[in-house]
Design goal:
- The structure is a single chain.
- By secondary structure, this protein is of the alpha+beta class.
- The protein folds into seven domains: 158 residues, Sandwich (Jelly Rolls); 149 residues, Galactose-binding domain-like (Jelly Rolls, Sandwich), CATH 2.60.120; 359 residues, TIM Barrel, CATH 3.20.20; 154 residues, Immunoglobulin-like (Sandwich), CATH 2.60.40; 185 residues, Immunoglobulin-like (Sandwich); 214 residues, Sandwich (Chondroitinase Ac, Chain A, domain 3), CATH 2.60.220; 174 residues, no CATH class.
- It is 16% helix and 31% strand.
- Strands 45, 46, 47, 48, 49, 50, 51, 52, 53, 54, 55, 56 and 57 form a 13-stranded mixed sheet that branches. Strands 34, 35, 36, 37, 38, 39, 40, 41, 42, 43 and 44 form an eleven-stranded mixed sheet that branches. A nine-stranded mixed sheet has the order 58-59-60-63-65-66-70-74-73, with helices on one face.
- Helix 18 packs across helix 23, helix 19 crosses helix 20 and helix 21 crosses helix 22.
- The chain is globular, with a radius of gyration of 37 Å.
- The N terminus is likely disordered.
- InterPro entries: Carb-bd_dom_fam9 (IPR010502), CenC_carb-bd (IPR003305), Galactose-bd-like_sf (IPR008979), GH (IPR017853), GH10 (IPR044846), GH10_AS (IPR031158), GH10_dom (IPR001000), SLH_dom (IPR001119).
Length: 1491
């Protein structure tokens, strides 16, 4: 009832499974007479594990405000079936053997009176009666609370289970509601530890499942299948493990560990995990829930496969004493479906006590006071932060709070029944804000993750298909949710994150492809804002008892759209376009929430402030909503204790950020907007002891906040409050090797990144450095608009003392420019300096300012690169350290335009070969040799990657075998991405992923797998510059390698950048110089030498293939070539056979200018052979694959030589206008076979030719690629759909098979039917199959999707979709299928191929409606006949009606389910139901889509 995507399993189920329920162990403090181990007052809204006794009658445990002994809440046990309905609590992990306890609780009747006692089950070998009464009979009334109390109750030795329940005495027959409150258990055992760190249960937990029982484990959501399995095992000498079928992300097995972990104690949690057979690699982790909505990931995200056990492990310190405490193993990523996995040998081990919080410092400035003139300072909280020392710290420094999880939609509502919604923890946080006069930010009303999924699903739990009816339903549910939730907090919430994370800059339209967007477009955003504003402005309508103050607060509340990475220029601009468009349409958006999850180096402060300024200038308020500053800048470093040097760097990062935020807020102050551009800065936690960043993405401690795990001020705090108290920490940098022979004007400076000084007022500087064996060269570009005589740049270098060079403005070495000046100087460096040596160095820039009339006389400033005090002439403490690095990597990129098809065109011979050689991760692994070219539009890259084992097992794209290209088009060499900087990733399967400026539509790719690796070819749009000869482009080539295929990246090899930060920092990228002519000798094309027969034909091995390239002549617009039998036989001799014994020879006819057709002459004997090989003719007009038996049994087979002609075809004049429009300007390919001057009529049903035509779809077509079809144009100008025609996104070609030659046109078909709105889930399938002539409507306008389909019609669909043909007629045709029937040929072919065996007595019953189980049987047999067998070993256990499937259909049904062709409905297969026409279309499309 109160579970969310990130919540524990139902506590009700937990108790039923004998899991000790959630309860509040009373802050673990020492009581005067002992240790309080359980205290329940139900004020947090949690039932605390109370549930009906498993063997008792029915009843429900809920939290209510109807009665309360103390406070406002109590437990209510309602809907009692009889007096035998008993509320119970599992205390197995609370009441320890041989301990002594005081136990008390209060009980009250809902009406009338009765007599009750506290009964128990104590399972101990020391007891004969295992069901003793703990507390005897007492009268219970509806007028007052009755206290049940037991003193010094001793638990017997060896207790395995402890339950208590409230039980009616004999004679009490009432089934009235029971109320329970103030449950208290105190451990009064002498020497029990008094609640001090190190006390309590230290026995831990171990589970190996060898006893066969669940050992307390249950499914996290309470419903997923979970069982002890003998199918796999990790335990040495064991035979069992725990198998869970996790239905979705965040689900898995859960164990209640309340009582097994104590506050301020550290524990190690570990388990072994393995995927069930056939399951894909899955990212899994261990997590802990410590509170109703508080979660910590304990182990790192780990990829688990089905071929090996993997250990997950991590350490966890319990920071609070929660009411709910669960350990669980969860699926970390969203895979869109269930994942089954085993765990075994789970352990929870006590490691020891840790130091708790120190007293909160009261002698330091309060953050909220320091920033009172600027913006509120907030913190994210959950109940654990609202008590004890955390509460004291919170109230001292923060004046605003936000719920970290408890107000997210899925924390509040799991279904549409608002009576079951969980407001407990959200109410507590809101009440805390009310009681302490804190601003409350409401986070969030709508989110695609941790959202209220029920709003998006139908009655069967499936996501709605997008149509107007479903859209209206979803938006109505959203409005209803807002109507209930918003009024509840309208008196206290001053800011609402109405929608969260709707932008995805990697998509063409910039919108996240969530279910919300899929179903409603952007109307969910419009509705959420409009409805929230309406409710707030009409609060009294929704809350009649609202006070005047509440109404005023509601009307003044602000509405925000919240997102992360808003500093990213591309994402920022998509978000800006969205909010300005919505604002113009009247949508009431008040501001933008910038989450601001950053680290100690990136992104740049400039990017953050640019984004805020952009929205501020457009009239939007800005709030920093989730600030944290990680101490990590990569995914590999890990510390259990964060080093001081990182904390100091973090302090300066906080300083830079808050200096900029204050300045920006002041910049936005006007008479119309006196509050400035920023109204709130919320830090995503109170102190470092609770942060979502710990153990992400690997096991490590992070420390992102101003206060430490012991609640003490860190350097981050002083960076916000008083930077003079920060330790003086010199910066570090690197300097590249090079000699600027032309001084400040030398082109070498374009290859060098800049070091930036701080900025004070309008004064700042960029410092570029180079070095050689003798000197350090400095070029300092100063921004200082006012010229004064005392303006100067000073350079400081340690070299046998301090060398100082001063370049005064206007003197030699200084050059004036727009808005400032440039200073240039050189300093001798220590003798023997070499790559890797360090120089101690700093730069100081002084601005004497102007006389502004103040008592100071001048308003000058001083900035430095390293020393924050600018005290370089006093001491060298603040000097920075420069590491001498090698010269920048520079290469020339040749001019040319290759075809991006994964084939090395002749044009590539003019490009120099480069290679990776810098190991960023690992020391060996996959490497690449690559070339680059450019033209007026694109940068081209062709690469051959050596990689022995190809893997895409990881869910993280960067951990798959892939290449990443980083392009800095303006060669800005910045420490964070600018608008032109892009990250282009391509894995070996040609799957693209992007970052920065890169998008799915601004680069084209092709890949090929070859022996020992793969090939990548790409064209990247140079769309932010005008490329020209001499242009410099920042560039990096990176190879990612999963060496062992386990889903973890094992090595990274780069061309130029050793930092591993190319994905966010372009300062260390190499440089490509665009050149018209090549200046270096190209390397080898790779792999094998070339054999050149006397005829001039070249035979060579390329990319693992044998390629034959004959001489080509062009005449009258046609390029022609001839190949002899000797050349082709030599090529076949060199070719290796594949696993099926077949060979492939590529015949390459390079593109020829002015050629509109390509002809190749071949010996007919080699196309009339029983041998197993194919010839792949590759031309610019298209690629044609010819089987060795192409001419067998045809007249053409008698010819000596045949010529295959491939060219541009024409659309016949007689074609209908509507069809002509659907072809438009799309390619038409002509295929002919000739012998001499005679065209041969080739037609061979037994040997199909495969054709691939290059085609670039429009953006509209890419939205519906299934509508791209191939039409055969016959001699009369009539078109016939080609069933196999389809667009292949990987190769960028339209592909089809044919058994006869003619003209073939690519068309875009919009064929549809007017009644498909009745089956929107089948619409795309119906249209795709109808466009190919596989399926027809009942009329031209109607499809009748709900009608049953006959047996004959379904068989005909299978035959057409799979292009099945029989060599001969069936021996005994079905008696009820006549030659005159329109389906005769299809049914006869199916019978001859063994697909259709009839219903008995040689009958087929063709007109009878086909059942779903017969459909499954016929489909499986058809796929087998087509050479596409289905996977074996599948099961139907997940379907409730699996037992209803006929025996003859079970195997076929299971195989189709495993293949994903049959999915069932609402957990059922409905085997005996008639198959509808809509269902048939979906099944047939799935079959057709199999390659």
């Amino acid at each position: 009832m109160r579970s969310s995507i990130k919540k524990a399993a139902s506590l009700l189920l937990a108790a039923a499974l004998l899991l000790p329920g959630g309860w509040a162990p009373a802050k673990a403090q020492a009581a005067e007479d002992g240790t309080v181990v359980l205290k329940q007052d139900f004020e947090d809204g949690a039932t605390g594990g109370w549930a009906k006794l498993s063997w008792g009658k029915a009843g429900d445990a809920v939290v209510t405000t109807e009665q309360a002994s103390d406070g406002t809440h109590a437990l209510k046990f309602t809907n009692r079936e009889s007096s035998d309905s008993k509320p119970s609590l599992n205390l197995t992990n609370v009441l320890l053997s041989d301990h002594v306890y005081d136990i008390s609780l209060k009980v009250r009747h809902g009406e009338s009176t009765g007599t009750y006692h506290i009964a128990s089950k104590i399972d101990s070998p020391a007891l004969e009666n295992k069901y003793p009464w703990i507390i005897g009979n007492k009268p219970v009334t509806a007028d007052a609370w009755t206290t049940f109390e037991a003193k010094a109750y001793e638990m017997p030795s060896g207790t395995k289970e402890a339950l208590i329940w409230v039980e009616a005495a004999d004679g009490t027959t009432s089934s009235a509601d029971l109320y329970i409150d103030e449950v208290l258990i105190v451990d009064v055992t002498p020497g029990s530890g008094g609640g001090q760190p190190g006390g309590g249960d230290q026995s831990g937990v171990a589970a190996d499942f060898e006893t066969g029982g669940l050992q307390g484990w249950g499914a996290r959501n309470g419903t997923d299948p979970i069982e002890v399995s003998s199918a796999d095992n990790h335990t040495a000498g064991g035979s069992k493990s725990l198998l869970t079928a996790a239905s979705e992300q965040y689900q898995g097995p859960l164990l209640n560990v309340l009582g097994k972990m104590q506050k301020n104690s550290k524990y190690r949690l570990s388990t072994w995990a393995k995927m069930a057979p056939g399951q894909e690699a899955t990212v899994i982790r261990i997590s802990v829930q410590h509170g109703d909505n508080t979660f910590t990931n304990v182990s790192a995200n780990t990829t688990v496969t089905d071929d090996a056990w993997v250990q997950l492990s991590g350490d966890f310190t319990l920071p609070n004493t929660p009411s709910v405490l669960n350990a669980y193993v969860e699926v970390a990523n969203n895979y869109g479906g269930p994942r089954s996995f085993y765990i075994d040998d789970f352990k929870l081990e006590y490691l020891g006590a840790v130091e708790g919080p120190l007293p909160v410092q009261t002698d330091i400035p309060q953050l909220k006071t320091v920033y009172d003139d600027y913006f509120e300072i907030g913190a994210a909280v959950e109940p654990a932060q609202l008590e004890g020392s955390h509460e004291e710290l919170l109230l001292r420094h923060y004046n605003s709070i936000v719920a970290e999880n408890s107000m997210k939609p899925d924390s509040i509502s799991k279904n549409s029944d608002s009576a079951t919604w969980n407001f407990g923890t959200a109410d507590n946080i809101a009440n805390y804000a009310r009681e302490n006069n804190l601003t409350l930010r409401f986070h969030t009303l709508l989110w695609h993750s941790q959202g209220a999924e029920w709003m998006l699903k139908d009655a069967q739990g499936q996501y709605f298909e997008p149509n107007e009816t479903n859209k209206a339903t979803v938006l109505k549910r959203l409005s209803d949710y807002i109507d209930i939730v918003v009024p509840r907090y309208a008196d206290v919430a001053k800011a609402y994150d109405v929608v969260n994370e709707v932008i995805d800059e990697g998509r063409p339209d910039g919108m996240r492809d969530s279910q919300w967007y899929r179903i409603t477009g952007d109307d969910f955003i419009r509705t959420a804002f409009t409805r929230t504003r309406y409710v707030l402005d009409h609060l009294q309508t929704f809350k009649p008892d609202a006070s005047a103050a509440a109404i005023a607060n509601a009307e003044s509340a602000k509405l925000y759209i919240n997102d992360y990475s808003t500093h990213n220029p591309k994402k920022r601009d998509f978000l800006f376009d969205l909010v300005t468009r919505l604002k113009e349409d009247g949508v009431p958006i008040d501001g933008v929430g910038h989450q601001t999850h950053i680290n100690i180096t990136g992104p740049s402060i400039q990017q953050i402030t640019d984004s805020i300024r952009k929205f501020g200038e457009a009239g939007f308020d800005n709030q920093i909503t989730e600030l944290d500053v990680s101490v990590y800048t990569n995914n590999t470093d890990a510390y259990t204790t964060v080093p001081d040097n990182l904390l100091n760097k973090q302090g300066y990062r906080y300083k830079e950020l808050f200096d900029a935020l204050r300045k920006l807020d002041n910049e936005g102050r006007t008479a119309q907007n006196p509050g400035g551009w920023i109204s709130n800065v919320t830090i995503w936690g109170v102190a470092d002891d609770h942060t979502w960043l710990t153990n992400r993405p690997i096991t490590r401690q992070d420390a992102p906040f101003p206060f430490s795990t012991r609640l003490q001020a860190k350097p981050a705090y002083w960076g916000m409050v008083d930077p003079t108290k920060l330790p003086v920490v010199g910066k570090v940098g690197s300097v590249l090797q090079g000699t600027p022979a032309q001084g400040a004007a030398d082109a070498a400076w374009q290859l060098v990144p800049a070091l930036a000084t701080e900025e004070v007022g309008t004064l700042s500087a960029d410092v570029k450095l180079l070095w050689d064996n003798e000197k350090l060269y400095a070029k300092v570009a100063v921004k200082d608009t006012y010229i004064a005589a005392d303006d100067a740049v000073e350079l400081f270098l340690q070299n046998n003392g301090t060398q100082t060079v001063k370049i005064a403005r206007g003197s030699q070495g200084a050059t004036e420019g727009t808005g400032g000046y440039t200073a240039y100087a050189a300093l001798p460096i220590p003798a023997g300096s070499a790559i890797g040596s360090q120089l101690v160095f700093d730069v100081r820039v002084s601005d004497s300012g102007v006389n502004d009339g103040s008592e100071q006389g001048r308003n000058g400033a001083i900035v430095s690169w390293s020393d924050p005090r600018s005290a370089q002439d006093t001491d060298a403490i603040g000097y920075g350290k420069l590491t001498l690095a090698a010269a920048p990597k520079v290469a020339e990129s040749a001019f040319g335009t290759p075809q991006v098809d994964g084939v090395m065109d002749a044009a590539w011979n003019n490009a120099a070969e480069l290679s990776t050689g810098i190991w960023v991760e690992g020391t060996s692994g996959a490497t690449a040799k690559f070339r680059t070219m450019w033209d007026a539009d694109n940068l081209y890259v062709y690469a051959v990657i050596t990689d022995a084992k190809l893997s895409d097992a990881s869910d993280n794209a960067y951990e798959e075998d892939s290449v990443e290209l980083f392009v800095d088009q303006n060669n800005g060499k910045t420490e964070s991405y600018e608008e032109d900087d892009g990250q282009y990733r391509i894995n070996f399967n040609n799957v693209k992923s992007v970052g920065g400026h890169a998008s799915q539509d601004n680069y084209v790719t092709a890949t090929k797998t070859i022996e020992g690796g793969y090939i990548v070819e790409t064209a990247i749009a140079l769309d932010t510059i005008t490329p020209a000869n001499g242009t410099l482009v920042g560039f990096e080539f990176q190879v990612n390698n999963d060496e062992d295929g386990d889903g973890d990246r094992d090595s990274v090899a780069n061309w130029a950048d050793p930092s591993g930060s190319s994905y966010m920092n372009t300062s260390k990228l190499g440089v490509l110089r665009l050149a018209k002519a090549q200046t270096s000798t190209p390397g080898p094309s790779g792999g094998g030498g070339a054999a050149v027969p006397p005829s001039g034909t070249k035979i060579e091995r390329k990319d693992g293939q044998i390629v034959v390239t004959p001489p080509v002549q062009t005449k009258d617009g046609r390029a022609s070539a001839a190949l002899s039998a000797d050349s082709l036989n030599e090529a076949l001799k060199q070719a290796a056979a594949n696993s099926q014994g077949g060979k492939q020879i590529v015949i390459d006819l390079p593109a020829q200018s002015n050629a509109n057709g390509y002809d190749v002459q071949l010996p007919a004997s080699l196309l009339n052979s029983a041998s197993n090989y194919v010839f792949v003719l590759r031309t610019a007009a298209g690629t044609v694959t010819l089987p060795s038996n192409m001419l067998a049994g045809t007249k053409a087979g008698s010819s000596e030589l045949v010529t295959l002609r491939v060219g541009t075809g024409t659309v016949a004049s007689g074609i209908a206008e509507s069809e002509r429009e659907q072809i438009g300007a799309r390619p038409v390919i002509s295929l002919e076979l000739a012998s001499g001057d005679k065209t041969l009529d080739w037609n061979n049903p037994a040997a199909s030719v495969e054709v691939a035509v290059p085609y670039k779809p429009t953006s509209e077509e890419l939205q519906h690629p299934e509508r791209i079809v191939v039409w055969h144009i016959n001699g009369e100008g009539q078109v016939e759909p080609v069933a196999s025609g389809r667009y292949d996104t990987v190769s960028g070609t339209v592909q089809f098979r044919t058994t006869h030659f003619s003209n073939y046109a690519i068309a875009y078909s919009t064929k549809t039917f007017g009644d498909l709105q009745a089956a929107p889930w089948a619409k795309a399938a119906v249209e795709a199959m109808a466009a190919r002539g596989i399926i027809n409507g009942v009329t031209d306008e109607a499809f009748a999707p709900a009608n049953a389909i006959s047996r004959a019609d379904f068989v005909a669909l299978l035959v057409r979709a799979l292009e099945l043909k029989a060599d001969a007629a069936p021996a005994a045709p079905f008696a009820d299928v006549k030659p005159s029937d329109y389906y005769y040929e299809a049914v006869a072919a199916a019978q001859a191929l063994g697909i259709a065996s009839g219903t008995g007595q040689n009958r087929f019953r063709p007109e009878q409606a086909i059942t779903r189980q017969d459909m499954m049987t016929l489909t499986a047999l058809a796929l087998k006949a087509a050479g596409k067998p289905l996977p074996a070993g599948a099961s139907l256990e997940s379907f409730a009606d699996a037992g209803s499937v006929a025996g003859y259909a079970k195997e076929s049904a299971a195989a189709l389910v495993k293949a994903g062709i049959v999915k069932g409905s609402a957990g059922q297969l409905r085997p005996a139901a008639a198959l509808t026409r809509a269902e048939a279309a979906v099944i047939v499309q799935a079959v057709w889509a199999l390659r």
